[in-house]
Batch of 2 targets.
Target 1
Amino acid sequence: MAAGATLTTCSSVDKATAARDFGTETEPVHGAHQAGVATPPQTHAVFVALDLLPQQGRGPRETLEAVLRLWSSDIARLAEGRPALADTEPELAHLPARLTVTVGLGPSVFDRVGLAHRRPRSVTEVPGFSTDRLQPRWCGGDLLLQICADDLVTVAHASRVLLKNVRAVTRQRWRQNGFRHAHGAGGSMRNLMGQVDGTATIADAAGFDRLVWDDGSDQPWFAGGTVMVVRRIRAEMDTWDELDRQSKELAVGRRLDSGAPLTGDLETDQPDFAASRNGIPVIPPNSHIALARPRRADEQFLRRPYNFDDAPPAGHITDSGLIFATYQRDPARQFVPVQRRLAQSDALNEWITTVGSATFAILPGFRPGEHLGQALL
Amino acid sequence: MAAGATLTTCSSVDKATAARDFGTETEPVHGAHQAGVATPPQTHAVFVALDLLPQQGRGPRETLEAVLRLWSSDIARLAEGRPALADTEPELAHLPARLTVTVGLGPSVFDRVGLAHRRPRSVTEVPGFSTDRLQPRWCGGDLLLQICADDLVTVAHASRVLLKNVRAVTRQRWRQNGFRHAHGAGGSMRNLMGQVDGTATIADAAGFDRLVWDDGSDQPWFAGGTVMVVRRIRAEMDTWDELDRQSKELAVGRRLDSGAPLTGDLETDQPDFAASRNGIPVIPPNSHIALARPRRADEQFLRRPYNFDDAPPAGHITDSGLIFATYQRDPARQFVPVQRRLAQSDALNEWITTVGSATFAILPGFRPGEHLGQALL
């Protein structure tokens, strides 16, 4: 695999791009919060859910602590472009490309390790919605690894290292591969239905403190953490593609070309939900953006979505959609009311189907010498 | 999916990278050869093999011609950053990111369309090798679509459009997703075993004419085409990772850190297969590069490999390896002798397993107003 027929070596492409190489860029790994939440989204993401396996001679709590210790050390090294301890492919570690690894605990694991009383009340599976078509193979999990970077080779190596080191004590439950536009390609995030996605988000520290980061008032150990709800939303491309453009724009409430609300000209314009023409609302009340609009100040959450496009099952053309990764202090107050409204009457529902759902306590950050979950365990 | 909770819009990342956006870069689509062979490899590739379905009221030859006409038109538009005809997500077409689409015909299709006498002798499945562990689900196919770009959103959109338009007359046989380092990340191509890969390749026009492009001497219609052999090679990472570095380097014949041959200092240094130390060859005779080295001038071919890293089957950690895409005038003279040598005694064999194989006649290029396969049909 490594070499073969020889003529000459072609390195002109490498040279042309050397001036702007971003492979060595890093994201800070230590702090009050884990990286990978407030971090500007990287191009690639892998989400892996794991279950803890019963161990002989060691309790589940000790197993969990061992996993988190090991991961903390390797995450810190990999994020800085250094090989993990006992890294068998150390050369693949040298281009971190803004690697972040984010670790979460599923609601189930608190019981399993005898710490049910330490589970934040906010960390619980979200209730079912009428439009859900959940498949067990995309749901739940004791542990979450979210691995993001601007280079897929980096993501593949980091996931290999982190999963290999815990193979004796965990089993993979599901894995989802996601992507956005390439670093440096330009363009807003678009999902594969063609829509500009993620226009409205949380950008300032005050917003993060108010809406995303837990303040420890329920469980002091959880201060600085957040609650992730990740939904796998399949796009029904075959029927979506049959819809004309105007109907699509009315279903979403935004123009497909610019991403502007139907009442505006620019992607960044605020939608005017009161505007009407001949007595008919310009943005239909059952359009996606009208229903997603917060009714109360806390009906907001951080969205960090990724596209997926997997090999389809036999007889199908496409298996694509959105890995809708969201982060908030309390899904029950922030995520659930919005989703309930959307489930009830979102015009988009005909063309999107939620097939997976999981909730994770994203652990507070860690400092050099500490490990993830230290305040819990 | 398109919008939701609103605070402010974060566009600092977009602005910072605007100066170097490469999304609008294009590769020439028309000419004597199809794009995607001599093109410097893009970051992402999707390889899709399709079978022609029997049609009522239309012969297979007419069906094939209709597919190739449709694809030619859409490929030309998409490669230039314009939406395909009847593109239902036209906004996804605006960042071609060096998109190339390359079309091939499997050996079987010539019989199926009644053109067995027009099949180039070079276009035939390669013989089995002793180390093959082929799975039918990764083998063969009537038609190949190879879609490459530096942005995965572009690849997803192009594959959707091109596959959707032929869904009534084809069935997907297999699909493989591949990747290399991100555009602009820096670094040589490395496979997921950690090896620098693709050091030696064919870079000049004379080499391409001699080794890659068909000259039409067998089948005049095929002049300007080439023969692709694509092999899916699984890396046995679990056992590979147990090997110490020196053993790995002896198996490959190159250093893992620099990619230099064991007799040199730089990746680009020519290996010295005659060098020995204390009577023992420095590069072992059964190392990968020693066996891959051409014994005759025509034992060379263009390699354009991509990594794969898919969700593993239950109980496994990783399903990764190499999509070994090769292009040559005649696999029997160029590819087969090298692979036969490797199958016999390559030290790497213990850690790599070929699970898929397919051969395709990559059609000659086309000019504006023409369509792919015009000289054949």
Note: Residues 26-362 of chain A form one domain.
Target 2
Amino acid sequence: MDKKVFGYPLKKIGIIGGGQLGKMLSQKAKQMGFYVISLDPSAECPAASVSDEIIVSDFYNPEKLKELVKKSDVTTYEIEHINTAALKELYNKGYNILPSPYCLEIIQDKLRQKQVLKEAGLPVPKFEKVESFDISFFESFGFPLVQKATKGGYDGRGVVVIKDSRSMDKILKTESYVEKFVDVEKELAVIVARNQKGDVVSYPVVEMVFDEAANILDMLIVPARVEKDIEDEAKKIAIKAVETLQSVGVFGVELFLTKDRKILINEIAPRPHNSGHYTIEACITSQFEQHLRAICGLPLGSTKLLSPAVMINLLGEEGYRGTPLIEGLEEALSIEGVSFHFYGKKLTAPFRKMGHVTVVDNDQERAIEKARKVKEILKIKSEVKIG
Amino acid sequence: MDKKVFGYPLKKIGIIGGGQLGKMLSQKAKQMGFYVISLDPSAECPAASVSDEIIVSDFYNPEKLKELVKKSDVTTYEIEHINTAALKELYNKGYNILPSPYCLEIIQDKLRQKQVLKEAGLPVPKFEKVESFDISFFESFGFPLVQKATKGGYDGRGVVVIKDSRSMDKILKTESYVEKFVDVEKELAVIVARNQKGDVVSYPVVEMVFDEAANILDMLIVPARVEKDIEDEAKKIAIKAVETLQSVGVFGVELFLTKDRKILINEIAPRPHNSGHYTIEACITSQFEQHLRAICGLPLGSTKLLSPAVMINLLGEEGYRGTPLIEGLEEALSIEGVSFHFYGKKLTAPFRKMGHVTVVDNDQERAIEKARKVKEILKIKSEVKIG
């Protein structure tokens, strides 16, 4: 290993997006002695008060992106919906942007992402580009199916399930593809990191439990309650998927475990991921530190799990919009093993991610029980009830 | 438990001192949704870029301290050498300052601290106020002895060891006390937290290993390598000491384990403590979160150790002064279980605390081995060599 010497700050890190992921990334960077410049449309975004500098700009302004990239030794991002063309131009001039904008471009286009993975021999649900909005196209693909917009989807937006030909009124009249509806046993996720030398590490497999009624993530359980061979296979597939993308950073790989015990890739995020928040408390190296190590050419850290953990998102309660009020915090914090994260968003809104809680406990069942209790007592509301 | 509702920010925390302790406290506060105002003489102090606001002032300016206290829901401090008189005045007017300035006043005066502990029946080395600088006073107390300035000592300053009457030229001509030189088997430390309800928790006992030659802390090992009864006794004494002070917050209690198996209190710090840095990685609740919970009237968190750990301070190398250069970082980070903290001080100087490293490893001996290796390879220097 070459005896490279780091000055202070270690490096200047540019982060596109100052939401909770940017905030957590910035906090870890500051712990380690980096200098952080965040770019976000709001000067009051969660990352603002924990970064060294903030550039106020939307994610498409080429001049502001250029300013960020030029000021930074390495630029990264916490969201996918950004100006890839502008970043490619800077990347081609030799600026350090990781994961590369070319990788981001593949991921932004969900259809291309699927094609790339399929071509690499990775298991994905059967899919096809929507060439016509005529019922015959959908019928010949076969019901039930999921239609997904190729671009711009996020947190369930841009996705519809079409059960049969009678639901054809739900179809999205947009550039999209259809995917076979997968009979899912469990949804899993694996955080994978890859550095510039091509070293790859994976974190433990996480089980994503959904609230079927509300169609939102209920809790994340780690380690996933699956057999050893499923766990190994999930990691193997996630690692191969990230290797296929040939880029650098931390990636969140979402997987389906089907009822017939197959693992299929759902989608990949080229950044720290909600399913990896538990790593802050429960792993030796958090996903945020790992991302920094990867993009800064440092050795990757240990992904070892120190304790079983359960993570729940704290979403804005339905019916409330405005300055957040937190109910039940004292009671929640009296439960052993509870870590509370509040992102610092100025306004709550129904289902908005306002914070999260990680519960660590040696006993996985007890951790789940505690997380369920926290979910019951800890509520993000606001003064005024709406609607 | 009353259903108290928290707004955002949860509370405004004022922190006197923006060094590494203030920085780590601020980072945890920001994670949890607090608003942080730091007060420090330097606008470029470690805490500055991770706090919401910085008030630039020395620690004795009553107007600036008042500004901080008035702006904050609760004010705390990361150092002891501050204007207690000004804080007492504000405290008496009903402002929330924790630990209370009265507690701080006792601790600032090391002689009074010892007296208070002794009166509470706690074990301390034999001590006596220096009433005369005449040799006969010291002789009648008995050699070997340690003379300590009652106020202003820090990191070994204001402390001299007088072995016999021939070393009398070393004595400090200042307000001071003498203490019997203790034949130390090991130095131990325990972090204790107490909240407003009077709940008290203690962390695991830490073993402080000193480099005898340089007379500086070499490494901190947790759990301490002592028998169970010593461990229990150390915790019991530390808890009783903190209860004696009747205040609120996190306290670092430094202890001597004597060669004849007695535990004596050395001194107490009314704040998060160097010996508790390992809690960030190795405990469920870090000492910084615990301090926030305590001073904000929240339930105390679990002090459970998730893994054995060893912490080393990263001190500026002798012979270097100036902008820091970090040597060996890549090699150090390639060791499994290493967490790197760099405080962001603009200048290094010999023995200045520039950062720290925590190593976690299931196997304590291996953790010690790894820490020793990190110490060898990771060096804080600067461009220009001095002296």
Note: Chain B touches chain A through 58 residues (CB under 8 Å).
